[in-house]
Design brief:
The chain contains no helices and ten strands. It is mostly beta strands. It starts with a strand and ends with a strand.
Length: 126
């Protein structure tokens, strides 16, 4: 059974930092693109960042560019999202996702990801 488990969410003041982790089990994602998305109630799931299997291609949403950094450790089958200079509008449930096709490109579209975590809440207070 493939599982993606996010951790590291919580409550932080504006301007603070958090580091999210996404640990995969049940299969390796070392040859697969992965991504982070977020969602607030009543809105569609929103792309945050993605990372290629090599880690060399890392597209970001404009809203987080320069503040968030995505990375991965294939040896640990784990992906990360370092979030700095957090703003209240970053408040959301954050989800990690993985694509099933090996060597596939990164994508900002939720429908192109096959595996999803359960989400972790990030709340940024003003």
């Amino acid at each position: 059974q493939v599982q993606l488990v996010e951790s590291g969410g919580g409550l932080v003041q504006a301007g603070g930092s958090l580091r999210l982790s996404c640990a995969a089990s049940g299969r390796t994602f070392s040859r697969n693109a992965m991504g982070w998305f977020r969602q607030v109630p009543g809105k569609e799931r929103e792309f945050v960042a993605a990372i290629s299997w090599t880690g060399t291609n890392t597209p970001y949403a404009d809203s987080v560019k320069g503040r968030f950094t995505i990375s991965r450790d294939n040896a640990k089958n784990t992906m990360y999202l370092q979030m700095n200079s957090l703003k209240p509008e970053d408040t959301a449930v954050y989800y990690c996702a993985g694509r099933a096709d090996p060597y596939g490109a990164t994508s900002s579209l939720p429908r192109e990801y096959d595996y999803w975590g359960q989400g972790t809440q990030v709340t940024v207070s003003s």
